[in-house]
Amino acid sequence: MGHVAADGQVVCELDALTGRLPCAAAGTEQTVGNLLSLGFSRGDEPTGLVVAADVAGRVVLALRAVTGVELQEEDFDDPWLGGLSAAGR
């Protein structure tokens, strides 16, 4: 279960295991609308791209819907430099 926020405000929860948005949110909220357009569901079974994706794929879909960032497979290649383990820290 994760929380989806827009402009620092939580607008809904997201269950990547089931593809559902378990809490009610304003139907006009653009962020929630983007998630619903991909097939995430408020109560019914998920549809569209969400059904075809595994859990990790659903998280990537949600990230794209919320932030507009398009991730590519090479974005996950090693080495990751950041946090306390980054060189020069």
Which labels suit this protein?
single chain, 89 residues, alpha+beta, two-stranded antiparallel ribbon, 3 helices, 2 strands
Topology (elements, then pairings):
Blueprint: E1 2-6, E2 9-14, H1 30-38, H2 48-52, H3 55-67
Antiparallel strand pairs: 1-2
Helix pairs in contact: 1-3
Radius of gyration equals: 15 Å
- Strand percentage lies at 5-15%
**Spatial strand sequence of the major β-sheet:** 1-2
Count of individual helical segments: 3
State the low-pLDDT regions, or none: none
Written as H for each helix and E for each strand, in order along the chain, the element string is EEHHH
Helix content: 25-40%
Class by helix and strand content? Answer: alpha+beta
Can you give the mean pLDDT? 79
**Can you tell me the overall shape?**
globular
Give the N-to-C terminal Cα separation: 33 Å
Number of strands: 2
Profile the largest sheet: 2 strands, antiparallel
Task: Describe it.
- It is a single chain.
- 30% of the residues lie in helices and 12% in strands.
- The protein has 3 helices and 2 strands; from the N terminus they run E-E-H-H-H.
- It has helices spanning 30-38, 48-52, 55-67; strands spanning 2-6, 9-14.
- Strands 1-2 form a two-stranded antiparallel ribbon.
- The mean pLDDT is 79.
